[in-house]
Structure formats: C-alpha cells, structure tokens
C-alpha cells in the first residue's frame, strides 16, 4: 500500500514538473570532437587541491585571522618560545591548519595509490615491482599521515583516549 502511494505521488510530481528538452553543446573543433577536456590527472589534482584548501581551514583562517604561531612561556628560563599547535580545543594556528590539511591530503593520496596500484600494470604497462613500490608508497603515506594526525590530536587534547 505504501509503495502505491509513493508511486502515485512520484507520478503526480513528474506530471506537474517536467524536465525541459534542451540540447547543450560545448565548443567543438573542425573534427567534431570536444574542444577542450581536462585529463583525469588534471581533475585529480584540482580535487586534491580543493580538498587541501577545505581541510586546512582556509575559510576559518580568512574569517578568524588567527596568528601563524603562538608564544608560550618557558617555565625554566622565563623566555617565550614559539608554539605551533594551540592547546585549546576550539582554536588553531595557521601553520597547524595547513600542516593538518597536508597530512590529510597525503593520507588520501596514499589510499588512492593503494587502490590504483593493481590497475597500473594493465593501464600503464608498469612492471610488478613498480606496482609493489606504489602499494608500499601508498601504505607508508597513509600510515605515516595517520600517525602524525594522532600526534597532533595528542598535542591538542593531551588526555584524549587515555584510560586511567
């Protein structure tokens, strides 16, 4: 019964709102092929760049204008020394955000390398050793970035995930 009601509503919705029948064409060359189409590597690099910009907190940096580094008083000498990671939960420095975004992007690149390594042999003619190098590089990138992000979290939140 529910399915009939939903199908009736969907049919009524499609009857009231119809998609226009249009034919869009982009610029073309003499041969009739597409004039310019970005390669898959260009699209990947643009996506990774936009992922880095979002993950590094660029919008936060523009709106809040945090300092690039903060200063911390050294208890032994009484002098101020630079501190790259703010130890407050709701704030970040510019370098902290950029470094965190870099680690997220490199970890993502490692996952992409691990995922695409088996198909490198058939698509690009890579040898088995090069495929293993790609898998190893991806694993090192992913695990190294995972560990560095954990270090950042342990600096930022000292008692996080510590069971006493």
TrEMBL record:
The portions of this protein that span the membrane are: 42-63, 132-155
Alphabetized, the UniProt keywords read:
Membrane, Transferase, Transmembrane, Transmembrane helix
- What GO cellular component entries does it have? oligosaccharyltransferase complex
Which superkingdom?
A: Eukaryota
Q: Which residues form a coiled coil?
A: none
One Gene Ontology term of the molecular function aspect? transferase activity
Supply the InterPro entries for this chain: OSTC (IPR042416)
Give the protein's recorded name: Oligosaccharyltransferase complex subunit ostc
Q: Which organism does this sequence originate in?
A: Porphyridium purpureum
Tell me the classification of the organism that encodes this protein: Eukaryota, Rhodophyta, Bangiophyceae, Porphyridiales, Porphyridiaceae
């Amino acid at each position: 019964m529910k399915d009939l009601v939903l199908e009736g509503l969907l049919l009524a919705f499609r009857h009231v709102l119809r998609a226009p029948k249009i034919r869009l064409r982009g610029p073309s060359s003499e041969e009739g092929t597409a004039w310019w189409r970005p390669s898959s590597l260009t699209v990947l690099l643009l996506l990774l760049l936009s992922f880095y910009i979002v993950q590094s907190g660029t919008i936060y940096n523009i709106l809040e204008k945090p300092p690039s580094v903060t200063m911390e008083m050294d208890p032994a000498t009484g002098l101020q020394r630079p501190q790259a990671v703010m130890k407050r939960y709701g704030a970040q420095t510019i370098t902290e955000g950029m470094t965190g975004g870099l680690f997220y992007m490199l970890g993502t690149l490692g996952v992409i390398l691990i995922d695409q390594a088996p198909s490198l042999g058939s698509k690009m003619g890579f040898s088995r050793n090069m495929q293993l190098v790609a898998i190893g590089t991806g694993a090192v990138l992913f695990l190294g970035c995972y560990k560095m992000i954990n270090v950042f979290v342990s600096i930022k939140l000292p008692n996080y995930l510590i069971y006493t």
